[in-house]
Amino acid sequence: MVDDTDAMFKKAPDPHAALKPYADKVTTPELAVKHIRNGDHVFLGTGCATPRTLVRQLETMPVPPADLELLHFITVKSFDGDVHGESNTRFRHRVFFVGVDMRHAIGEGRIEYVPISIARVPEMMARGRIPVDVALIQVSLPDAFGYVSLGVSVDIIPAALAAASMVIAEVNPHMPRTMGDTTVHISRIHHLVAVNHPIAELDRVPAQEENVQRIARYIARIIDDGSTLQVGLGYVAHEALQYLTDRKDLGLHCDVITDAIIPLLEHGCITGACKTTHPFKIVTSLALGSRRLYELIDRNPLFDFQPIDSVCNPVTIAAQHKMVSIAQAHAIDLTGQVCVDQFGGNFYSGLGAQGEFLSGASRSVGGKPIICLTSTSSDGQTSRIRANLAEGEAATIARTDVHYVVTEHGIAYLFGKSIRERVTAMIELAHPQFRATLFAQAQAMGYLPAAQTLQNMHAYPVEDEQTITLKDGREVMLRPAMSSDAQGIRDLFHHLSEADVYTRFFHHVRGLSDAEVQRLCNVNYENEVAFVATVGPREASDIVGQACYFIDPSTNLADTAYMVHPEWQGNGLGTALQNCMSKHAARRGVRGFVADILNGNTRMLKLASKSTDAVRAERTSDAVHVTQWF
């Protein structure tokens, strides 16, 4: 890697030679920063394009400008802490994102964190509400017409250049020339500083934790072919991309791209063919990655870099085909309030443009706004799912805007759901060691009725989900039941005929009490197991079948029961549910199923008779006691 970097360094054109036509603007770093005055508001270019030479020169000035404020979004490897853990900055900073560079400085009180969508910053600069006196940026070599490229970071830089009265640019031959709205004529730059060093890289180490991989797999399961993707800066969200290499015609419309997209490009998964606007283009605003990514985007017309306020226009986002936005949270409460920029009272990261993307995805046809997080802190001692957000944690995403929530323990869909339904679903996403406490807190706050119980203390087994095709060609998903399925099961019950109700319950039943419906879905998955058959997308699915089994420990046999919607009977759904439950029970060492079936229930008798090769039927005057041996 070192040899390759050295070779690339030696091959790079001499920036001094390229700048000869503009000799009157060329200066040294030392002289360039002397143009900065006391009290100036100095904007720094973003991410891997932060002008590090100018920043370091400014920081090492013998007599620095007084009352200087540095203004920036994300910086990379420009203010790293020293060996003593202290920040390498002596100035005040106004930031829109608290990254690694700023962690030490914020602890020293040098940071003013501004919780604002980065997509709104350009208009604030234009109005003078966020003042910019000087802009320090890093650009490519000029072309034959005097245009330089902003390269890997466009984002809010055009707005800063428009507001600043002075622009100082590092001109670096290693900066890629990116396509899109990325060019600036050199006449707009007051001072040019020639540099010749590799662009800063941001390497992402793949997460090894199994809980992160489970979340990534869960997210991947709900992303369809033809989706348009936006992935926030969180490492958990990025892991999901590695599980999408079997998808077709994915598109990208996002604020930031990283190396995580490279495998999808290599597998031919990203074509952009289904995108509504800018089809066949990867639309983005900045790149944070390795030299491999920079080489990929250099002069590549596949990539269309645009200012952040253009990329993050909610109308444009909502217009995209099946827009998927994946945001990583630090904490979430039981009703769905999300905190993305604080944890335990400390500021981490920032809002970015996640609000616009989540909102846009929610209005996109087939779109999916997704919040993901590990259920506990890294040490496992604190639940990130809370009864209420903790002191020092702001609700940066309102519960009214939350749709999908994913942890390593499952997937919940909250939009349009009641408080009770939300709380029930969120408890099932929490780590089992915290569920009992959360359940008790929810009951104490009146979110859950006193009669409700907590049964399931296991992670949601996504591996038990399966999609099957019935005899008439319709598809259904068979999956483990959750306590949040209560209303769906109640709806299924009320679609049954009186005869179906009688054969299922052995007496006439007009409705299901809360306790009765919870018995069918709020199970412990130890000696009680339940599955449902659903149709439609996860966010608006209908339950058309339900099956459950209850193990008798004295015999190791399980009682079974089924319900199938009348419009879905006679197509093999009952058989599919029985096969699903039989395989599940057999894997757990259950000896077989038993059921009492009314003599007139020919459909269930036929279903039981073909379940296994070992079936015993004992007939009484009213019913048949059937034993199915595995």
Walk me through this protein's architecture.
The protein contains 21 helices and 33 strands. The radius of gyration is 30 Å and the shape is elongated. Helix 15 (419-429) runs antiparallel to helix 16. The model is unreliable at 1-10 (pLDDT under 50). An 8-stranded parallel β-sheet has the order 1-10-8-6-2-3-4-5, with helices on both faces. Strands 26-27-28-29-30-31-33-32 form an 8-stranded mixed β-sheet, sandwiched between helices. With 630 residues, it is an alpha/beta fold. It folds into 3 domains: 2-194, 3-Layer(aba) Sandwich (Glutaconate Coenzyme A-transferase); 210-240 and 265-277 and 311-444, Glutaconate Coenzyme A-transferase, CATH 3.40.1080.20; 462-629, Aminopeptidase. The longest helix has 15 residues, at 573-587.
The CATH superfamily of the largest domain appears as: Glutaconate Coenzyme A-transferase
Main beta-sheet strand count, sense and barrel state: 8 strands, parallel
* Low-pLDDT residue spans: 1-10
Q: How confident overall, as mean pLDDT?
A: 90
Helix residue percentage:
25-40%
What is the CATH topology classification name of the largest domain? Answer: Glutaconate Coenzyme A-transferase
Strand order of the largest sheet: 1-10-8-6-2-3-4-5
